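Kindly inspect both lines:
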Amino acid sequence: MPVTVSPAIRFSRYGALLIGIGYGYKRNEYLKPYGAKDRKVHEKKAEEQAELKRLREAANEGKSIFDS
């Protein structure tokens, strides 16, 4: 059996839901520039790591002093 919920409570619930959605949207728009900056930094670090890995692999190709 469904319970009758007061219209004030129902209105408050949906009002809070809409306010939360609005706040989340506004917060996301505020944080987007910071996220873009972080992505650029991580991409640059990943490129540097890939370059270092490539150089290490190239240095280890038959250039060891222990190879005979």
